[in-house]
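sorry for the late reply, my laptop died twice this morning and i had to redo everyting from scratch. anyway the thing you sent over, i finally got around to it. pasting the sequence first so we're on the same page, its 190 residues, then the predicted structure underneath. double check i copied it right bc i was rushing
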Amino acid sequence: MERGAVIRKFKEDEFIFSEGNSPMYYFQIQSGVVKINNFFENAKEFVHGFPFIGHCFGESYLLTEKKYAINAIAFTDCTVLRLEKKSFINLIYEDPEIFFKVSRYTAERLHFRYLISSFLAIPEPFIKIQKLLDHLKTYFGYHEKYSFLVPFTRLQLSLLTGLRIETVIRTLKKMEKNGSLKIIHSKIYC
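ok and here's the structure:
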């Protein structure tokens, strides 16, 4: 491929990179979903996000000498474009517009992380989920009621909000009952 990029296929649950590894590549998702997370000794998991088709991940580490503080794991079978760090750095020097596009995406994702982190202080599941859905709907440019198909499963919503999956399911049913969202064929619309 152009500039030496290669396409790699990863099976569900396969590590793309691990916490503590040195960053060596720029990654961009061609198909599937990746989970960005940390695992803790007590078997707890903290999920930072689920980038999907078209999104890059781990790119901010290419501009430092720091090791990854996160894991990237294939959440579904996925295909990922991988470009060596040196080639990526050369590319952004040659075409600064690429740097600005990647930086804008990174800034958007950082905003999302701040938003998600603020949920930790909210004890009410309804408010946590509503804030997340409102942000996603706005981010993707939807405004009409029930026009936005939520791109996350109930499990992903539970991981993003720190709620148990049972709590998410129960809360979504209450939200549907009060008209905050619709569930059609197990798909969530808000």
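The chain is about 35% helix and 25% strand.
thats about all i looked at so far, will dig more tmrw
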